[in-house]
Amino acid sequence: MNYPNLISSKLPNVGTSIFTVMSKFAADNNAINLSQGFPDFSCSEELIGLVNKYMLKGCNQYAPMAGLMSLREIIAEKTEDIYSAKYDPETEITITAGGTQAIFTAISAVIREGDEVIIFEPAYDCYQPAIELNGGKTIYMQLKAPHYLIDWEEVKKVINYHTKMIIINTPHNPSGSIMTAGDMAKLEKLTKGTEIVIISDEVYEHIIFDGYEHQSVARFPKLAERSFIISSFGKTFHATGWKMGYCVAPKKLMAEFRKVHQFLVFSCNTPIQHALAEFLKNKKNYAGLGIFYQKKRDYFISLIKDSKFTLEPSSGTYFQLLRYNGISKEKDTNFAVRLTKEFGIASIPISAFYHNAVDNKVLRFCFAKKEETLEKAAEILNKI
Ligand code: GLN
């Protein structure tokens, strides 16, 4: 059938997300899937039991638009406890359908035609399309391999009258780098006296290693007053498929966020919110997450220490970058495809996190996996 051409794409350069592409490719090729970031072990049975309990209790209708009050209250407590920052659960915390929805909502609430948004590459893939859909212009800054740190002098040079937003991400996906208090001080200085809004993507806030403390913007009042902070229960509780997260922001920003949120999703899963509110009361349920994943990182690294890949240990997130310039000159996308097809192991090529496909011969591997999965993966990697 011949269909009329009704629309021209609003996102002409966007294809299917690399995470979906690689996970499907891994499945089609029966490969070990260390590409898309998700645990291959179960989340807490207690938490599953709580969801079940609240479903059976009849908590199955709409939650309040901004989220269940008991959950917002415990988030406020946790945020104050860890970062010494006070957020009013009534007006400054909203439960979202995962981190990506929160990021889209915050960008939509703020960005207008012609506004400039600074992001740092390699960058998580959901920022740029949301900016573009809202008529904004993405300004790409580069994090330099192998340490992927921000060059604040360069940032200073691109800030101008049109700069409306800066999106930061710590711990950083895909590189595993983390921002320091020094970074935050520089960001504070750069944004002082401006109307720049910050989105701080902190979905890996509890997955940080080697004794470092997560530098949430919430710790810095002058930054917090202009920031949307995004967090994710999927990462913290090994339940990425539940698509639950939250956003905290000062009242004025949050009021605008909620205007968009209510027409994007209205409200989020009710029984899961009840369960999370109860589960979060026990700090042990998230306090040990850094140690838990540090062990996995260390195990994975120790298993591949004699391979031809090279690496800097990840400082946070559940991703480890591996360089393969000692193995092949192939483009990272081609190499990732070949590893999946010929060797049976899937990863994410880092060029996918750049608008212009910068290829540094680096692949991202997710180590949120059972020991046996990591062992099988390492056995393969050691042969390459
Ligand atoms: N955050 C996950 C990752 O980086 C992917 C989430 C998704 O597939 N949208 O792999």
Summarize the structure.
The chain contains 15 helices and 12 strands. It has helices spanning 18-28, 45-56, 69-83, 99-110, 127-133, 152-158, 181-191, 221-224, 233-236, 251-264, 270-279, 284-287, 289-303, 332-343, 371-383, and strands at 32-33, 93-96, 116-121, 137-142, 163-169, 197-201, 227-232, 245-248, 319-323, 345-346, 348-349, 362-366. Glutamine (GLN) binds at residues 17, 19, 36-37, 173.
Report the β-strand fraction as a percent range: 5-15%
Straight-line distance between termini: 48 Å
**Gross CATH architecture of the largest domain:** 3-Layer(aba) Sandwich
Gyration radius from CA atoms, angstroms: 21 Å
CATH H level, superfamily name of the largest domain: Type I PLP-dependent aspartate aminotransferase-like (Major domain)
- Low-pLDDT windows of residues: none
Give average pLDDT, whole number.
Answer: 97
Helix-strand sequence: HEHHEHEHEHEHEHEHEHHHHEHEEEH
Q: How would you describe what is shown here?
A:
This protein is α/β, with parallel strands linked by helices and 384 residues long. The protein folds into two domains: 18-43 and 287-381, Aspartate Aminotransferase, domain 1, CATH 3.90.1150; 45-285, Aspartate Aminotransferase, domain 2. It is built from 15 helices and twelve strands. A seven-stranded mixed beta sheet has the order 2-8-7-6-5-3-4, sandwiched between helices. Strands 9-12-11 form a three-stranded antiparallel beta sheet. The radius of gyration is 21 Å and the shape is globular. Residues 17, 19, 36-37, 173 line the site of glutamine.
